[in-house]
Amino acid sequence: MIDRNGGGILKIFLTGPKGVGKTTIVLKVMMSFDKVAGFFTKKLRNGVLFIPIGKKEEFFIGIMTKNGIIPYMRGFEKAVEFLKNLRFDEETLLVMDELGFLERRLEPFLESVERSVLKAERVLGVVREDSLSFFPFLKREDLMIMKVNCENREHLPEKVLKMLRGSI
Asked: Is residue 73 part of a domain?
């Protein structure tokens, strides 16, 4: 979102190759905010874990099968409920790390993600490079997609923080 005071973009999604440091950037930026809401995901041997920020309950949204990871519907239902119940104000940083291929056909989850992004003042997310097309709202003009690579990853935490604070 363009800051009302003439500042920068306040909704940023990072993308880039696996292991390049996207989550590290999110974690560094998060430390500068007093209020943070949202979630992380973590790939484990047996599936993908949904980790709500500030909540103790973690749950699976993807289950490993012999053919790869498949969505776990009960987990996505819980994730939708979590997103619907998120409360944040204009000082809160909404974190979504990461969005990817598992969600591509799960309309209730996609709608909840989009609703949360549109409602939040400040957003920092991560989206898999090969999954950008699954999230049409990422094409909005008030949102920036920032590619992370080995050349820029050291400077991005400071740049992203300035943008989210509205000082660029």
From this structure: yes
